[in-house]
Amino acid sequence: MRIHCLPKNHDIQLYVRRESWRVDGVFAIARGAQSVAELIVVELRSGSRRGHGECEPQEYYGESPSTVIAQIERLRPQIESGLTREELLVDMPPGAARNALDCAMWDLEAKCSGRSAWAIAGIEPRTVVTDFSLSLDTPEKMRERALKYRDWPILKIKLGGGDIDVDRVAAVRDAAPGARLTVDANESWTPAQLERDAPRLHALGVELIEQPLPAKNDAALRIYEPIIPICADEACHSRASLDRIDGLYQFINIKLDKTGGLTEALALAREARARGLRLMVGCMTGTSLATAPALLVASLAEYVDLDGPLLLAADRDPPVSYALGVISPAPSALWG
Question: Is 158 a catalytic residue?
Answer without folding.
Answer: yes
